[in-house]
Amino acid sequence: MDVLRPTLVRIGGRVYRKNLIQEQPFPQEEDEDFCAGPGDCADDDPCDAFVVEETERGFQSRVEVPSPLYKYIIGKKGETKKRLETETRTSISIPKPGVEGEIVITGQQRSGVVSARTRIDVLLDSFRKKQPFTHFLSFALNQPAIQEKFLQFKEEVLEKCSQDHGVSSSLFQNPAKLHLTLGTLVLLNEQEIQKACDLLQQCKENFVDQITGGKPLTVEVAGVEYMNDDPAMTDVLYAKVRMKDGSDRLQVIADQLVERFVASGLMLKEWDRVKLHATVMNTLFRKDPTL
């Protein structure tokens, strides 16, 4: 069934098939690779969603890649890179480890360069998704008034639940870190961090200032909730947040921000709409894992 119904991978508005092959795994990685040459597109359009330049010796394509991802293109003892070069009849130049730069694909045939570039894009997309997030996009909720109320909430819970097994002060969020999470990002070098900062500034100028009128939004933080069906299995407790004026402006800004970041490739789309929530208690914060 994996052959008849392969996993589809979406990159840049195009769809590619993910084919499993037998190969020695990278350390701590799954044994999988991708074949996505021009004939592997899931639609009828050619795989030319990137620039292929004609040179005196043939064709070439350049792709910016964060240095932590080089190893996935090189493979164990260079096997992945050698196989890509052999199967696509291209030469793939990769910067030295730790040196930020571009991977350059050259070949005499345009189709070979396109095939190599497409397969590299699919590999990079797959392994990027496996990286732990490095940053997150959020709205800060660490104003003094909110911090004070949060500490009161913490004291009341500890007082009323002091006899309950597992309830301790280490479960609570740091008041200075109270925030509304919009989404997580994997930014692997300074260039990607700067790209995210520039995009955030563009969003502010393009629609955030217009929606807010250039003034701070007043929100109300009241009540708690959990996001699973069984209260006995709850690991995270969230504070409810809503606009004081009853409008949906905060939700609109959050949804549009995530939409822009997803479109830029800096964030993966997880939900149709952002669930605005502020974590107040989390079992991951627990200092004593035996409780």
TrEMBL record:
Q: Which UniProt keywords apply?
A: RNA-binding
Signal peptide feature range: none
One example of a Gene Ontology biological process annotation:
DNA alkylation repair
Q: Upper lineage ranks?
A: Eukaryota, Metazoa, Chordata, Craniata, Vertebrata
State if RNA-binding is listed as a keyword: yes
Q: What is this protein called?
A: Activating signal cointegrator 1 complex subunit 1 isoform X5
- State a single Gene Ontology molecular function: RNA binding
Keyword DNA-binding attributed:
no
Identify the gene encoding this protein: ASCC1
Q: What SUPFAM superfamilies has UniProt attached to this entry? A: Eukaryotic type KH-domain (KH-domain type I), LigT-like
Alphabetized Pfam families for the sequence: AKAP7_NLS (PF10469), KH_1 (PF00013)
Q: Which CDD domains match?
A: KH-I_ASCC1 (cd22419)
GO cellular component assignments: nucleus
Q: PANTHER family per the record?
A: ACTIVATING SIGNAL COINTEGRATOR 1 COMPLEX SUBUNIT 1
**Which ranges carry the K Homology domain?**
57-125
